[in-house]
From TrEMBL:
NCBIfam families reported for this sequence: cmk (TIGR00017)
Organism: Larkinella terrae
Domain of life: Bacteria
Similarity annotation: Belongs to the cytidylate kinase family. Type 1 subfamily.
Protein name per Swiss-Prot or TrEMBL: Cytidylate kinase
InterPro entries in UniProt: Cytidylate_kin, Cytidylate_kinase_dom, P-loop_NTPase
Known EC number: 2.7.4.25
GO biological process: nucleobase-containing small molecule interconversion; pyrimidine nucleotide metabolic process
Length: 257
């Protein structure tokens, strides 16, 4: 027979979760290394990585290919109803690549034409609502690293770890130019810098989910950091955050038997 005297309410039960799966939200300016860093962090932790910028680029690609005016709201709504976006693993690149209506468009969305137009498309409320809904669905099981511009403020305001990345605009332009050169594209540095500054302005001033640092986000300036240094910084921040994650008390009784 149970002895009620063997229970005490002196200490609550507190069980620590050794390896909890959390949401890591990485926001910041274009060209800071968000996507590359987030991808490597996810691989290190065994988490899912989602490049939300690629999602907006895919929508932009669809609009341009189908001559959808960025101001024709009825046409935009009709187009969004026909768009399907998914990520599929490519063993050759060892990464998830974006598919638009079943077709791999990973390379097409990285062109400067798309980069120039995506700030306008991503500011369209209907587009953002659709993308946010997809992103929240992808992260419902946690264990995810997601980068973008409104992840910590709009998509996952409850994320356990939020990071806001920034870097000098000229350094970001130089990085972007090198990236394009490696893909065989030659673009003047001045043109890339203008695109980055324009995008920064549009991202931070748009009415719908503007780019801003969440009040509880950690700031990471990557101007003089390598990708490996960025990854180590984020992994350490994640490990520190995980140590703080515990399961709430299950009962007010502590068994003393």
């Amino acid at each position: 027979m149970n002895d009620p005297q063997r229970f005490s309410s002196a200490r609550p039960v507190k069980i620590e979760i050794r390896n909890p799966r959390i949401i890591i939200a990485i926001d910041g300016h274009s060209g800071c290394g968000k996507s590359t860093t987030a991808k490597k962090v996810a691989s290190h932790l065994g988490y899912i990585y989602v490049d939300t910028g690629a999602m907006y680029r895919a929508v932009t690609l669809y609009f341009l290919r189908n001559h959808i005016s960025f101001t024709d709201l009825p046409a935009i709504d009709e187009a969004l109803a026909t768009i399907s976006i998914s990520f599929q693993f490519n063993p050759e690149t060892n990464g998830n690549e974006i598919h638009l209506n079943g077709v791999n468009v990973e390379n097409e969305i990285r062109k400067l034409e798309i980069a120039n137009a995506v700030p306008v498309v991503s500011a369209i409320p209907a587009v953002r609502r659709m993308m946010v809904a997809i992103q929240q669905k992808l992260g419902r099981n946690r264990g995810i690293v997601m980068d973008g511009r409104d992840i910590g403020t709009k998509v996952f305001p409850e994320a356990e770890l939020k990071i806001f990345m920034t870097a000098d605009a000229l350094i970001r332009a130089e990085r972007r130019q090198l990236e394009l050169q490696q893909k065989g594209e030659v673009v003047a540095l001045a043109e890339i810098l203008e695109n980055i500054r324009k995008r920064d302005h549009l991202d931070t001033t748009r009415a719908e989910s503007p780019l801003r640092q969440a009040s509880d986000a950690e700031l990471l300036d990557t101007s003089f950091m390598t990708i490996d240094e960025q990854v180590r910084w984020v992994v350490r921040a994640c490990e520190n955050r995980i140590e703080l994650v515990t399961e709430p008390a299950l009962t007010d009784l502590q068994y003393e038997g």
